[in-house]
Amino acid sequence: MSDTLILGAGGLYPPLVEQLVDDGALTWPHGGADRRAMLDDHAADIRVVVSSAGVGADARLIDALPNLELIANFGVGYDATDVDAATARGIPVTNTPDVLDDCVADLAIGLTIDVMRAISASDRYARQGRWKSDGPYPLQRRVTGAKVGILGLGRIGQAIATRFEGFRCEIRYHNRSRKDVAYDYEESPAALAEWADVLVVATPGGAQTKALVDADVLAALGENGYLVNIARGSVVDQEALIEALQHDAIAGAALDVFTDEPGIPQELCDLDTVVITPHVASATHETRRAMADVVLANIDAHRAGQELPTRVN
Ligand code: NAP
Q1: Candidates 98, 106, 175: which one to mutate for ligand 1, based on the most atoms within 8 Å of Cβ?
Q2: How far, in Å, is the centroid of ligand 1 from the Cα of 277?
Q3: Cα–Cα dist 78/294, whole Å
Q4: Domain D-isomer specific 2-hydroxyacid dehydrogenase catalytic, which positions (predicted)?
Q5: Which numbered atom of ligand 1 lies nearest the CA of 175?
Q6: Could you tell me if 267 and 134 lie in one domain?
């Protein structure tokens, strides 16, 4: 495997990196300063790139690798990779669908319960001794029976919906196209937000969904509504979200993803109505192992000249 370049290895599952490096793969762990030197020395040798949500293969990198044959993305979301540039060169791109649905959905439920019941905020309150000094923590909102709007009812969105059914929640959704499901469809993100107590974002990232949740959608969600984003930071207008939260125009937000990761705006960190996790929705031993196996299956299939299990282009 000396012809494999691993991008952004810091964001990958370490055993996958070790496995590939043991086979002689090159690493480009930080995706930054050493790029030029790496390309000067190895550009013509590299046939496979392993990318991630954090560091994808952009058009410049694809252009710089004359013998590139495969981009295997570690993750289901491949918005950091220029798929059009890859397709124009006839280079397949693969991802890791299905195997991470459960863990991402689990986290979406955890974030929803946290932001509605203030688990993290009341934990801070208790640790600071404020139970004793200031009295009982303020009452919060009930999760059971809440109206949950899912923006992006795909594999992960469905797994989230199924879990919320267990909480006797009413569920509606918005996609570009209607699905054959038991949930009611709303015609737009704003209409879904208007109806929902909780708006859960589960679309892909990228140009097509950029700022799909904008100031108007947040206004429609309203002062009693909560936003949960496990999709991509780009799907939400982060400035508009900060503005809405600072003015209590929405009740709270639970965020696993941000516009400029790993940067998190201080304004979000300063608010007790915000729950923050550092893009960890698929980050369990079990799921990361399964994702690594899908990456390896695609590389193996490519080498054997077989059909790629999870090609996206
Ligand atoms: P999926 O099965 O392709 O589902 C995506 C859904 O979004 C589809 O139902 C699609 O329906 C809808 N959609 C796409 N564009 C839309 C638009 N412009 N407006 C409204 N709906 C739109 O993908 P998935 O496997 O569930 O993954 C979803 C995303 O979750 C990934 O792409 C990734 O960005 C994110 N993710 C995040 C983490 C994390 O660690 N936080 C982990 C895994 C995945 P239509 O085509 O009908 O519109």
Answers
A1: 175
A2: 19
A3: 14
A4: 39-313
A5: 21
A6: yes
- Reported as half-sphere exposure (CB side, CA atoms, 13 A), residue 220 has a value of 17
Domain that holds residue 91: 4-98+285-303
Read off the CATH number of the domain in which 247 is found. Answer: 3.40.50.720
Catalytic choice (172, 279, 288, 302): 279
Using one digit for the tens of pLDDT, what is the confidence trace for 109-153? Answer: 999 999 999 999 999 999 999 999 999 999 999 999 999 999 999
Name the residue at shortest CA distance from atom 25 of ligand 1.
155
The CA 246 to ligand 1 mean position distance, Å, reads 28
What pLDDT, in 10s, does the model give residues 264-309?
Answer: 999 999 999 999 999 999 999 999 999 999 999 999 999 999 999 9
Q: Tell me the CA distances in angstroms from 304 to 4, 69, 151, 300, one per residue in order.
A: 15, 13, 39, 6
Residue among 263, 262, 216 at smallest CA distance from 236: 216
